[in-house]
Specification:
Structural class: mainly beta
Largest sheet: 6 strands, mixed
Helix content: under 10%
Order of helices and strands: EEEEEEEEEEEE
């Protein structure tokens, strides 16, 4: 190993932290903190930074040590750039340095023509059905909504209570028919 760090004590968060590895910079300014640059050597023998792990102050003051954790990667021929950030409040931002929700995804690329610009893709292997689940675990009574895809039914919107899915709307993958309160839409819109 090029670098091995060992500690006889357990690593702990909070008061009285013990550190196995501490990376720090001087100053209590916005974005100051520690940065670890990770790289490698290409086939020509040139060393290059490939990724970055950084922590920094969010809004430094004498009363606040709130910090963020950022991850960066490098595209060919460019400098490493931040790709994902976790704020002190636990919000995760992909493509943004100021996430306002638990998961905030921002894509600044544009597309032309009919090519879709996917910001989020959800896939499952084999015959499993990919789904988005929106729920309230606190109630425990199945207050939720599910958007799912499976087989010939290309889109299902409904409710999943204790593993039983109830369709509210579905789009048939074979013909594009839409069914509202109908699981077998036989025309363009079946209600």
């Amino acid at each position: 190993a090029k670098l091995q760090v060992e500690s006889a004590t357990n690593y702990a968060f909070g008061a009285g932290d013990t550190y196995n590895l501490l990376v720090n910079t001087q100053g209590h300014a916005d974005n100051n903190g520690g940065t670890i640059w990770i790289g490698g050597q290409d086939t020509a023998g040139t060393y290059a930074t490939l990724g970055v792990l950084k922590v920094g102050f969010e809004a430094p003051s004498a009363a606040s040590n709130a910090g963020y954790l950022a991850f960066g990667t490098r595209t060919s021929g460019a400098y490493a750039a931040e790709r994902m950030r976790i704020t002190s409040g636990g919000n995760v931002g992909i493509g943004t340095t100021g996430p306002t929700k638990k998961l905030h995804i921002k894509d600044t690329t544009t597309t032309t023509g009919t090519t879709p610009n996917y910001v989020l893709a959800i896939n499952r292997q084999n015959s499993d059905s990919p789904a988005l689940y929106f729920g309230n675990d606190a109630t425990g009574n199945g207050d939720n909504a599910v958007i799912a895809m499976n087989g010939a039914v290309k889109l299902r919107i409904g409710k999943d209570a204790s593993g039983t899915f109830t369709d509210y709307m579905r789009i048939d993958g074979a013909n594009g028919n839409v069914g509202i309160a109908s699981t077998t839409p036989w025309r363009t819109l079946s209600v």
